[in-house]
What does this fold into?
Amino acid sequence: MDFLVQVVHLYYQRNMTQDEIAKRLGVSKMTVSRALKTAETQKLVEIKINLPIMNHQELEKRLIQRLNLNEVFVTCPPVLQTKADRLKGELLLDFIGKSTALFIDHLLQDSITIGIAQGKTIGYIARNLSAKKLNNAKVVQILGGLNTSSSYNPYDLLQLVSSKLGAEGTYMSGQAFVINEMAQKVIMAENLHSGIGNLWAKCDFCLAALGSCSNNGAYVTSGLLNDDDLQEVVQRGAVGDIVGHFYNQDGNFVTSILHKRVNSIPIEDLRKVKQIIVTASGSEKIKPIIGAARTGLPITLITDQHTAEGILEELGGK
It folds into this structure.
């Protein structure tokens, strides 16, 4: 069933040809054709697509052009029938998590190496992944841990994803931000000595979220940073961060005290990753998304329709 869902999604919702799907999934065109016929027989496809995830192709095209990204996926969430903002936010994150899990499903193959950072949305992605038994697959942590155990702590996320995929997990030592530059050098040396740097270089893709420099973000709520720490990078122009590296609206990484304290995959290694799949939604993530797109990192953006429209409005045109 998972294979049929992938084929239907790529053919009907992503508008890929059967040849393109066959190449992407590593099967023959005949296999794709038969899968589409089976999908019709099993009522996965009728006049409309009977899948829970829909995408907005026009917004995707505009964002690819305006943000200069290779790939963008814009989900169209259902109308959320609740007046509770917190519940509405959780439902949206769950929907985006399901969308992303479906989006990356075809990437989950034998011998793959996946990088995992922190983020609430990544937690929803992990929980919605289809269980597989991959051979020689590896999941590697690319950002140090948080002070508390939670659904978006890199340690917990790595354990969950590794378990779902039957993959080997490799953990980092230390927290995402340490006390000073000297401690950062010691911990990074320990991590590199363990061989984790070699795995970073082999990552086929990474799952990452974008921070928004707000005091209700994970770094502050977990006690790793305080308001003064954030204020220091904001005064230097920071609008967001990706795996602990803060950047400004022009996509330039900010030099600050925090960049000497972060325990994360280095920016130069992040640039070598084949694909960084970033999930971000909400008005507070609009500027972080725009800035991240301008960093030149190999980002694939997954967001929702309302956030996509907000990005285009911020850029000066829908």
Notes: The chain has two domains: 1-51, 53-314.
